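User: Run a structure prediction on this.
Assistant: Running it now.
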Amino acid sequence: MKSVTNCLQTEDFIRIRVGIGQPKYKDDLINYVIGPIETKEKEILQKGIEKAAEAVLEILKNGIDIAMNKFNRKGN
């Protein structure tokens, strides 16, 4: 995010976050985030990417507030 905000010279933009879970061991966080993705996790990640793409379309069509209400519901 630092490089994005630095390049844009602002923090005033919409962010869409895709969760990646947690590593088994706290000390392994960096490797967990930037390391290779396990095969079984790729399908889960693909679903998250598809949901994020749907959220982008919802934002463009109906605005951020409606999109947030639709996609930030618990269990969604």
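DSSP finds four helices and no strands in the chain.
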